[in-house]
Amino acid sequence: MSAVSIMRPTLSRAELAALTQRYAQEVLEGRHEVHADPDERWHVRLHCDDDVDVWLISWTQSQGTELHDHGGSCGAFTVVEGALTESVWSGPVEKGRLRDLERGIGDTVTFGDHYIHDVRNTEEQVAVSVHVYSPPLSLMNFYDVNDGALERLATSWTDDPEIATPTYRTVDELLQAARGGITRLQPAAAAEAVEQGALIVDIRPAWQREADGEVPGAFIVERNHLEWRLHPASDARLPQAVAGQRWIVMCTEGYTSSLAAASLASLGIPAADIEGGIKGWEAAGLPVVPGPTPVEQVVPHGGAADAAAPRAS
């Protein structure tokens, strides 16, 4: 069967800072050629291995990024020449603010795997900076701020930190992009993964679970709470949401579950979904019991009406 992806080890912040500073010194010594492009940010990858990638970027006046994160990678950057303005999101997703911070020559910034910021050059002088990501950059999420809340605009699977914010002409394009970054399991393979320690999380609303039934042992977490309940660092996490826990997302037919699993994967959470959803599961002859089980409880093996399920939060 296909393996469910797992988180890769990362370098510490101190190691990331030391790495950017080492490459910044090499740039100052002329060991790496720097160019400046007035139309778009010039960038080149200086190094990449299993643990980290290193990028050299130049910024002419008014060039900058969109508000973004790094898809679960930690990182650091050092300003080599000029100055950069960094806007950093501070506070919870539902209510926070952007703080503008000035970064000058020699300044080094390190960040964890949930850091959201944009960076820009507002000065006439060309700015040059070195950026590192660990594990190597593979995904970016892009955001906007709406009435003090952070709103995700798009997700892109990429190894290039200088991509533009992706746009999708159709929902099918969005779905295809999401599925390109996750593992999709046939129902039998999903059942086997559960036997090996994976947990199914059912994100359907109660009326769908009542209509189509539920999988015994599945965790009921509706879609709007999913990231907060499954992230190991969240104050609202389930007890089972520990680092490295594998999750298999289930919906009715396997469409919404792909988008949800991609969102979890963007946060570094090992996630897959089931092809065909609950309907594919039942068609494969796998067990289904009546629902609906209350939200944030575990589906009992005899059905929701047979016994009270243990609380999961």
Core attributes:
313 residues; alpha/beta; Jelly Rolls; Oxidized Rhodanese, domain 1; 5-stranded parallel sheet; elongated; disordered N terminus; disordered C terminus
Write structural notes for this entry.
The protein has 313 residues and is an alpha/beta fold. It has two domains: 13-167, Jelly Rolls, CATH 2.60.120.10; 174-283, Rhodanese-like domain (Oxidized Rhodanese, domain 1), CATH 3.40.250. It is built from seven helices and 15 strands. It has helices at residues 13-28, 171-179, 187-195, 206-212, 226-230, 256-266, 277-283, and strands at residues 42-48, 53-59, 74-81, 84-90, 97-103, 108-111, 117-120, 127-134, 139-146, 149-157, 183-185, 199-202, 219-220, 247-250, 271-274. The strands form four sheets. A five-stranded antiparallel sheet has the order 1-2-8-3-6, with helices on one face. Strands 11-15-14-12-13 form a five-stranded parallel sheet. Helix 6 links the parallel strand 14 and strand 15 (271-274). Helix 2 (171-179) crosses helix 6. The longest helix is centred in the first third of the chain and has 16 residues, at 13-28. The two termini are 31 Å apart. The model is unreliable at 1-9 and 304-313 (pLDDT under 50).
